[in-house]
From TrEMBL:
Name this polypeptide is given: ANTAR domain-containing protein
PROSITE patterns with a match to the protein in the record: ANTAR, PAS
Residue span(s) of domain ANTAR: 361-422
Pfam families named in the record: ANTAR (PF03861), GAF_2 (PF13185), PAS_4 (PF08448)
Highest taxon of the lineage: Bacteria
Transmembrane segments: none
Domain PAS per the UniProt entry, residue ranges: 85-150
Entry keyword annotation includes Transcription: yes
Protease as UniProt keyword: no
InterPro entries: ANTAR, CheY-like_superfamily, GAF, GAF-like_dom_sf, PAS, PAS-like_dom_sf, PAS_4, WH-like_DNA-bd_sf
Amino acid sequence: MPTPSSGRPASEDADAVGWLGAMRTRLDSLGAGAGADRRSEVAALVAHLETAYEELRVADEEARAQHDHITRLVERENLLRWQQERMLAVLPVPVVTTDPDGIVRAVNAAAAGLLARRVSRLVGEPLLALLSADDRPDLRHFLDEGAEHDRTLRRVVTLEHRDLPAETVELQVTVFPGAGEINWLVLGGHGQEPSRSEHAAHRMAPALVQLINLPGHVGSSSDALRAAVRTCADALGGGCAVSLVVGAPVAPEAVATSDETASACDGAQLAAGEGPCQAAYEVGEVVVCEDLAHDERWPGFAARAPEGVQAVVSAPTDLGGRRTGALNVYLPVAGPTATYVEGVVLLAAAIGSALHEIGLRGELERLSGDMQRALDSRATIDQAKGIVMAARRCTPDEAFAHLTDLASTRHVKLRELAAQIVAGAARPDTVG
């Protein structure tokens, strides 16, 4: 089945395997069926072809393994991009993404509606052209300062529509240098009273954009977890404590907490083997404990929870329907509002996408390292061949055949044997 971006259909892999198999069969038949008068000639040909066959087989195995790995990464990257675009699209908060010069790259539906333009008409246009002439100089200066560091600008500006009256709005402009892009959020303006979900999204908008762009300006997964927890705690406010669990709560792969209260609550749930975090992860939906003292669902957790925690909101993090962990918010007051709960759900959704991309980037870096090591091992094998050729006064094919025989006899990989020979080149007995 062809893959969308690998450029190498699976049929080619099958052809390569079939060709190598056919070559192996022909080699066997040549060795077995030659007459006495041509046996020496055939033996030399067989040895030469066997060397070529072995080199091709090793190279093909490595190439197919790398190809399969890259294909999986591309599929996961496409899934991530789809989820990020979906999240921005459904946010009622107007969000515009531009390059460092202010040229529009992406627009969500809310922004297109506010600007009274079709998305296709906005992409590629300078965003500053939609602002009043009085507002442009400050924003142009902000852009001209460059995008080497995280920066945020908040201004009340006037949007000027071609066919609509001017509208005053509050604009937040955030630079994410690692991502090479700028996010523009409209946080307020004149109009109808927002719905409950719109109010939650507006309140969470800066935090959501920070989380979605987290992979562009953190160095590692641990840094990302800590940054995500701080962002959520700041966005939710109210003296809450926040924890982020990666993996199943009963056996987490990683945990980050905002303070000691969050750590104690996580520990209490783990010790009790029950709680809102585990429940949210298992059912795949947000779980709310409005009053811990009177909630009978998790008596073990309630008995171990630290004093001062009266309510809990736990929301699963996921990617494409696959649960990856949970976001937990511990509150000092009972009865979190529905808007507050929706805010926690939005934050958990953004975290799921961000952590996946960070993990994907780490895997791509590891793959790059593996490919470099494969190239290094090929160079080491070539060096070892040269050493064997000099020691045994033989041809490159004979040297490679000698190396494969030694590797088989000593039960080591060819690259490992080559490294040993190169490292011990000064000792004649190393080459066998």
